[in-house]
Amino acid sequence: MGYSIKQISEKTNLSAHVLRYYEKEGLLPNVERSKSGIRHYSEDNLEWIGLICCLKKTGMSIKQIREFVELSTQGNQTLKCRCEMLIDHKKHVEEQIQELYRHLEKVCHKIDYFSAQYQKHMEDNSSEKIQPSIKLL
User: Fold this and answer.
1) Which pLDDT value is given to residue 64?
2) Residues 41 and 105 placed together within one structural domain of the fold
């Protein structure tokens, strides 16, 4: 049993347009079609879509993903090359994560700085506004 493009779209949160684009670009191999041309997606196609989304969201280009898919369709003789591609991509992702951590540290530092400045401002202003009231008996 296969999935319709609508079902795959709902499962993956990708539009039918994006799914057709992935197929046209050679990123989604072996999508079966009925005699009338209606796409029937398999569990394998669903797995590929998950991998494509993962690679894309972590910064791999469409061209690189296509190369990976093409290598995958060539069989086990390309396993080493595919592993090397993924190892290189992993290194790139780790570098991105480290850069994001550096930026996050700066943001946290600025939050601390501005929070302290705001606290000081509130203390300074509250002492000016509050004046002791003198009650006459």
Assistant:
1) 97
2) no
Q: Does residue 86 sit in the same domain as residue 65?
A: no
- Which tens digit of pLDDT belongs to each residue from 34-78? 899 899 999 999 999 999 999 999 999 999 999 999 999 999 999
Q: Which residue range is the domain that position 112 belongs to?
A: 79-127
For 136: left if phi > 0, alpha if psi spans -120 to 50, otherwise beta; the answer is: beta
pTM: 0.77
Helix (H) or strand (E) holding 104: helix 79-129
Same domain? For 53 and 119 the reply is no
Residue 27 to residue 21: CA distance in whole angstroms: 9
